[in-house]
């Protein structure tokens, strides 16, 4: 299966989850690494857009395409998630759930609905799981962010 992420070019090769470990995210507290990916480039860009301030968008962005195993992943549906899972900013309940799952290391990949488009999915890659070695970067392509996305 192929998943995508968008981010600063200098981190396009990073599969350690360091950015999420430092900053936290919807599904992880700070100090817990996680690699956020999406089922499509469009969803990856939408997720990036809702989580970045227009003044913080770097000139050097890239899309990374990753091949991930089709096995050893947990699938979560909306009914499995806290009632406030789509709230903005991300609530503590989602951070608690994701952090607990990542730290258990039972799954290399967690398939989870997007808070932006719940009928589409994001894939959380767990750098703490030994299966991360089976996740391969297929391509990295430079991307120029169209600021009209944030200013319309």
Blueprint of the fold:
Layout: E1 2-8, H1 18-23, E2 35-38, H2 41-50, E3 61-67, E4 73-75, H3 92-104, E5 109-113, E6 121-125, E7 136-143, H4 148-151
Parallel strand pairs: 4-5
Antiparallel strand pairs: 1-3, 2-6, 3-7, 5-6
Features:
152 residues, 26% strand, four-stranded mixed β-sheet, 4 helices, single chain, alpha+beta, three-stranded antiparallel β-sheet
Structure description:
The structure is a single chain. The protein is of the alpha+beta class and 152 residues long. The protein has one domain (2-151). It has four helices and seven strands. The protein has a four-stranded mixed sheet. Strands 1-3-7 form a three-stranded antiparallel sheet. Strand 5 and strand 6 (121-125) form a beta hairpin. The longest helix has 13 residues, at 92-104. The protein is globular.
Strand order of the largest sheet: 2-6-5-4
N-to-C order of helices and strands: EHEHEEHEEEH
Helix content: 10-25%
Number of helices: 4
Low-confidence stretches: none
From the helix content, strand content and strand pairing, which structural class follows?
A: alpha+beta
Shape: globular
**Terminal Cα span:** 33 Å
Q: Taking Cα atoms only, what radius of gyration do you get, to the nearest Å?
A: 15 Å
How many domains make up the 3D coordinates?
Answer: 1
Kindly estimate the percentage of residues that lie in beta strands according to DSSP: 25-35%
Let me know the average pLDDT: 95
Task: Report the biggest beta sheet as strand number plus sense, adding barrel if it closes.
Answer: 4 strands, mixed
- According to DSSP, the number of beta strands is 7
